[in-house]
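Researcher: Dear colleague, please comment on this protein.
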Amino acid sequence: MTTLSTGAISQIYHNEHAARPIVQVTELKIVTSSDANAPRRIKCKLSDGAQWGVALMSNEMAQKVLEETLKENGCIKLKNYMVNQLSNTKMCIVVDAEVLSVQEAPIGEPVPWTDRMPAQTVLSACGEELARNLKELCENEAGRSSVLAASGHVVLVGLLHAGPDSLTTKHAVQALLTLSGNVAASRQMLVQAGAVAPAVELLRTAPTASNELFMTDALALVCNLTNSSAGIEAVKKEGAIALAVTLLSAVPAVAKYAASVLINLSTHPDTNQLVNLAEIREAGAISPLMALLHGEAAGRAASALSNLSGDADGAAAIVPAGAIVPLVALLHATEAETAAGAAGALRRMAALNEQSRPAILAALAARPPPPPREDDKWAYLANLLACLRPIAMQRLTAAVAGDDEAELQEAIDQAVAVTVAGVIRTGWTVADAELQRARTKLAAMREAAEAARRERRTSLGLDELKTPDEFVCPITYEVMQDPVCASDGNTYERSAIEVVLALPDERRKSPLTREPLQTTLFPNRALKNRIIAHEQDAEAVAEKAAQRILEAERTSVAARKRPLPAGAEDSPDEGASSSSAGGHKRGRRQ
């Protein structure tokens, strides 16, 4: 039996030109063509007994096959060949070869060649080349298994010490990141091999624009290592909590993975119980996580805040930090995980911190949540609404019993917000009777207030006062008492536009633009405040004018009724007598 050249296929297809390797042709096929004048081509497989690769014969070699000088399972010594990349396959072109013998069957049990070297061959290299080769070997499942079997992961852990600026370390991080992916056993092997300490040490590297990818890989590796209880304890022991909190202030891509590390560190992988909450809060995580709610890392930040609000101290710390409004905004995120994280945080705050409930209800009323969808990730939103609904309805009942118009309107808005989609999960329905009673009372209160306002304006002579056009509802042509913005961007009196929204879908169109309307309304508080201020200013001016008129009338009446000084009624006669007497006397002297 002819002896084949060991490792010949790997050398050939890696373009490492071997000196006349001996291989076996294990399969021969004549490639046909629709063109009768085209030369015949021979496709074959070349084997070194361990691996085989695809090859094509040159015209000269094809002639040997046709003349049966070379047959299937024949052994040849390659004299001249080349390797080309065709599509995704490397193919050897046999230009010239010496036919040595023909065997009865293939030698050995060859397997298809891949462009990954065997693990033992890879481990014989060193430094950067070793790390790069191991990284390439880890790109498929078979390669990962061979690396672990050959203790290549231990070698990779050692290569992490080459320094954050070294290509050796970067290749090693990427290889370990791949190994730690979805297999729990692999992650456990890495933890046992001591990967945690050098991986966490890499997080001390100052993030820059040039190392952003490296830092995200390092954080992702640490994140994967925290998917076991042993990994969490090891990562925590190395001081990863403080390092991850610091990296929350880095560029968004890095901050996103830093938040992921904190999420894993705060969730026990086996029991799903929340852990390490106090340590993460004390490290100062809340403030930078809050800042991330407004960017591309919002989803991860919301999930981290959801975990941190999992006890009373956490909920009490997050509420005054101003997280409620941005979290409510994230309920409208298209990504289910982002909305779920926001809903989870709000749900825990509402359940554990009574003082947060009014603020959450007010934020929901200002921006009503979307309907929960029919999948498990949206159950968080349904649970949030179910938690707040009894509170909102209790407040609505109290507001109906009172006489504060603003408080009643606010209570109605909040009740509608938490029941708008309410209960895909819980089976509840909107409390129509209670809401109708509240709306009826609110309408009566507004009608009475409007009648009193008109009477007062008439008494002050303000009926002819010009009203700004923006204050007038385009449906009722009256000054709006409760202005709301519809989806067409225009403002209407709430009661008037609600009539339009109650119409069938095909008739639910904007009174101004005729475009289809969505059912969500937003209070136009700025306009309402301007209307109130305008009314108050006009009444104040009229009051002052009326007061001045009244004071002038009182002064005039008082002047007419003022009594004369004592003896003032005789003074005219006495003056005349004196004058007459004086004249008489002067005449007598003369």
